[in-house]
Every structure is written in structure tokens, then in C-alpha cells.
Design brief:
Subunit structure: Monomer.
CATH architecture of the largest domain: Alpha-Beta Horseshoe
Shape: globular
Number of domains: 3
Protein name: tRNA-2-methylthio-N(6)-dimethylallyladenosine synthase
Binding site for [4Fe-4S] cluster 1: 14, 50, 84
Largest sheet: 6 strands, parallel
CATH class of the largest domain: Alpha Beta
Helix content: 25-40%
GO molecular function: 4 iron, 4 sulfur cluster binding; metal ion binding; tRNA-2-methylthio-N(6)-dimethylallyladenosine(37) synthase activity
Strand content: 15-25%
Low-confidence stretches: none
Bound molecules: 5'-deoxyadenosine, iron/sulfur cluster
Number of strands: 19
Strand order of the largest sheet: 2-1-3-4-5-6
Distance between the termini: 50 Å
Structural class: alpha/beta
Domain Radical SAM core: 145-371
Number of helices: 14
């Protein structure tokens, strides 16, 4: 018997890339590949890339530079670029780095087996189509191998919103929802393999329309699956938060009280220039309605500072919105010019202005995150334990609010949801005591 070929995948960017990497590994599993954690052992290396900001995209070329040493040492090694940089730059990647054998976009990776056969024959393979034969029809079933208690499940891809800063409509294409019956089948397969918590993924997940009652309908259908204990979803657009989804946050026990709802800016002028199609006020009213349905919900968001034309006053409006909402946690970024997007044409702000604003915003968000964590002390939460901690006898998991929680517990808690009282908070996690 020949030894299996080894596949090393490095994943950048969002959670959907994590999901896609799993599916790529499964697709290549049929070609005799097994995954390795060590690039030096690999017969094929795939970089699953992100194009959302300039820094993310540039990382790919520096990583490819490092990989060249491995390819020089092992000429049979095949190197592939997948994901959003592959989609955005296509053949340009092979021009810049001729040692790259394979370039595959996020909608064509079901064709990896055929592409592998081509590169093994010494050819180059490039596929950045948005094919009619959707990848999930080809990659029907999931691996039956036992897995950890949490998993991602892509239910929707692409985006039709065209925010002026964003590459997603170009890299991931138009909004597409997977049919609910196929998602339910995949969810059952994941639960059979040990999954207890599913995070439903989409670039604009709450625009999901593969179920007649939208994302809320899909969530309710998923609650029927025995053994599935928790459901989350990310990432949402404020304008697609319909009443049924807000209500589900109040009434669906399996839906966790955590919501990532990016606003990007608190200035109406900038929101308009960003083509967000909502105002700061409409976002705040939406938050009121969500909190009315689920008062303890933990809110998360995304912010961009230094969008072209942003004045000091616009930035102050963003800080004010953050104070008004009070986020449990959030992500913030300096605006990054993305080729091909409408905002790329506009004059850019100086870097020092952007840096200063980012620091102020991050300080405020950090304060709010710390306050939220500190407010958990003394409270009882439910933790889904995922893995052993660094110290002997410690287990780590996530609370319903997505806080990392560690506690002294036997290994039998792994994969279970257990009651924990929070006793202490530290930088990025909470310490708790098992009480049930
Ligand atoms: N520059 C900076 N941040 C961006 N994001 C998207 N595009 C850009 C860009 N051009 C941020 C947004 C989005 C998150 C995924 O990344 O905040 O919600
Ligand atoms: Fe990055 Fe967006 Fe692609 Fe995810 S979908 S990898 S965030 S560019």
C-alpha cells in the first residue's frame, strides 16, 4: 500500500474560510490526501486566503515567499492558493509567484480533485469560475470522522449590499442561499459526528432565504435535531434583521444570546457614503427591539475608522454610538483601500489620523468589553466544554455569551453543556466553578 499523500492547509480570514478549508480537505481526502499540521511534511500546501483588507492580501505573498524554500527542497511539492485572493487576483498570482501550481476560487473548490490530477501531471490549474454546478451539490456528504463539539456550517454566501468599501460582492459573488433540506441533512451529519453547537455562516447570513420563513425558519427547523443544543449565526446586516429573527432571540432556547451586528460608523453622512442604507438612529432603534426580545443579549460589532471623508465630528458620532449601544465585544479596523470598490476612487485620510482614531475607538471598546466580562462575576452561565485547558484538571469551553470560560472539571464534561458559576475575570477569559 502506498503511503497517503499529505495536505497542509493554512487558513486566513473569516470563519467561512475555516469551513471551506474543512470541505477542501474532505474533497482531497478522496484523492488519498490526509491532513498534516506541518508544512515541511506536505505533498500539497493550500493557502486559503482573505482579501478583505490590504494587509490580509499581502500576507499571502509573504507566505508564498517562505514556501519557496520548501518547494526548492522538494520539487514535487504542489502549492495552491485558494479563497478570496485567488478569486480577486487569479492568474496574477502565478505571474507574481511562478512556483504556484494551482489557484482555486471559493466557488470552485469542488473541482479540486480534477485540478489535483492536472497538477500531478505537471500542468498548472486555475479555476475562479462562479459555476452553475454549485459546489455543495458535488460535495454532498460530510466526513463521518468523530469531531469536536462545535462546528461552522455555511448556509449563505456572497452579498448584494455593495457597501462602498467591501470586496465581498466581487470575491464571493451574489447572494446565494443553500436549500434548507440540505443544510438540515449536513447538520444531522455533524451532530452524528459529535457536534453540539452549530454556527451558521454567511457573509450576510440574515438575508438567508433558503427556507420559506428565512433564517428564523431555518433556526426553528434546526432546533428539531436531537443532540444539537446550541445555534449561533454570523454575520448579519442591520437591514435584514426581520421581526421573526428578533422574536427567535426571545423564544428559541437553542439560539444563543449573542449577536454580531456590524454598524461600521455612527455618522449618518459616512453611513450614506458607505452605502449602508441605514442610519445611526435606525440601528439604535433596532438594538432596542432586539434587547426588548432578549434583554441579556451580548452585542458585538464591526467598525471602520478613517473612511474617505470622515471628519473629527463623524468620528465623534461613532464614539457616541458605541457609548449608546455598549458592546460586549467588537472588532475595529482602519479603512483599507480595496481595488475595484467604489470608495477606492476617493481621496484617502492620512495614516496618523486613522491611527489616532483607531486607538481611541479601541480603548473605548476594550473598556466596554472589560465591564461586560466583570459583570459576569457571580453569575451562573452554561458552558459547552470543548477542550482541556493548559493546567492539569482544567477544561475550557464557551458560555452562551461566547465568553471563554475555564473551570476545574473532569474530562467527562467535554462535549457537555454544564452549569458554571463565574468567579473571576482575566484578560480574555473567565474563571468559573462547576456547579451542575
Ligand atoms: N477596510 C477596512 N475594513 C473593512 N472591512 C470590510 N472591508 C474593509 C475595508 N476595505 C471590515 C468591516 C466588515 C469586516 C468583516 O471587515 O468592518 O464588517
Ligand atoms: Fe476575507 Fe471576506 Fe473572503 Fe472571508 S469572505 S475570506 S472575510 S474577503
Amino acid at each position: 500500500m502506498t503511503a497517503p499523500k499529505k495536505l497542509f492547509i493554512k487558513t486566513y480570514g473569516c470563519q467561512m474560510n475555516v469551513y471551506d478549508s474543512e470541505r477542501m480537505a474532505e474533497a482531497l481526502g478522496g484523492q488519498g490526501y490526509v491532513q498534516t499540521d506541518h508544512a515541511e511534511d506536505a505533498d500539497m500546501i493550500l493557502l486559503n486566503t482573505c482579501h478583505i483588507r490590504e494587509k490580509a492580501a499581502e500576507k499571502v505573498y509573504s507566505e508564498l515567499g517562505r514556501m519557496k524554500v520548501l518547494k526548492d527542497a522538494k520539487p514535487d511539492l504542489k502549492i495552491g492558493v485558494a479563497g478570496c485572493v485567488a478569486q480577486a487576483e487569479g492568474a496574477e498570482i502565478m505571474r507574481r509567484q511562478p512556483m504556484v501550481d494551482l489557484v482555486v476560487g471559493p466557488q470552485s473548490y469542488h473541482r479540486l480533485p480534477a485540478m489535483d490530477a492536472a497538477v500531478q501531471g505537471g500542468a498548472k490549474a486555475l479555476d475562479t469560475d462562479f459555476p452553475e454546478d454549485d459546489k455543495f451539490k458535488t460535495l454532498k456528504t460530510r466526513s463521518k470522522a468523530k469531531r469536536g463539539p462545535t462546528a461552522f456550517l455555511t448556509v449563505q454566501e456572497g452579498c448584494d449590499k455593495f457597501c462602498a468599501f467591501c470586496v465581498v460582492p466581487y470575491t464571493r459573488g451574489a447572494e446565494v442561499s443553500r436549500p434548507a433540506d440540505r443544510i438540515l441533512r449536513e447538520a444531522r451529519e455533524l451532530v452524528d459526528a459529535g457536534v453540539r453547537e452549530l454556527t451558521l455562516l454567511g457573509q450576510n447570513v440574515n438575508a438567508y432565504h433558503g427556507h420559506e420563513r428565512g433564517l428564523a425558519g431555518l433556526i426553528w427547523a434546526l432546533t428539531e435535531i436531537d443532540g444539537l443544543e446550541r445555534i449561533r449565526f454570523t454575520t448579519s446586516h442591520p437591514n435584514d434583521m426581520d421581526q421573526a429573527l428578533i422574536d427567535a432571540h426571545g423564544t428559541c432556547e437553542k439560539l444563543m444570546p449573542y449577536l454580531h451586528l456590524p454598524v461600521q460608523s455612527g455618522s449618518d453622512r459616512i453611513l450614506k457614503a458607505m452605502n449602508r442604507k441605514h442610519t445611526a438612529e435606525s440601528y439604535l432603534r433596532l438594538i432596542d427591539r432586539i434587547r426588548a426580545a432578549r434583554p441579556d443579549i451580548l452585542l458585538s460589532g464591526d467598525f471602520i475608522v478613517g473612511f474617505p471623508g470622515e471628519t473629527d465630528q463623524d468620528f465623534e458620532d461613532t464614539l457616541q454610538l458605541v457609548r449608546d449601544v455598549h458592546y460586549g465585544q467588537a472588532y475595529s479596523f482602519k479603512y483599507s483601500t480595496r481595488p475595484g470598490t467604489p470608495a477606492a476612487e476617493k481621496p484617502q485620510l492620512p495614516d496618523d489620523v486613522m491611527n489616532e482614531r483607531l486607538q481611541r475607538l479601541q480603548a473605548l471598546l476594550r473598556d466596554q468589553q472589560q465591564q461586560t466580562q466583570a459583570s459576569m462575576i457571580g453569575r451562573e452561565v452554561k458552558v459547552l466544554f470543548e477542550k482541556a485547558g493548559r493546567e492539569a484538571g482544567q477544561m475550557i469551553g464557551k458560555s452562551e455569551y461566547l465568553h471563554a470560560v475555564y473551570a476545574d472539571a473532569p474530562a467527562t464534561v467535554l462535549g457537555q453543556v454544564r452549569r458554571v458559576r463565574i468567579v473571576q475575570d482575566s484578560a480574555n477569559s473567565l474563571k468559573g466553578e462547576l456547579i451542575g
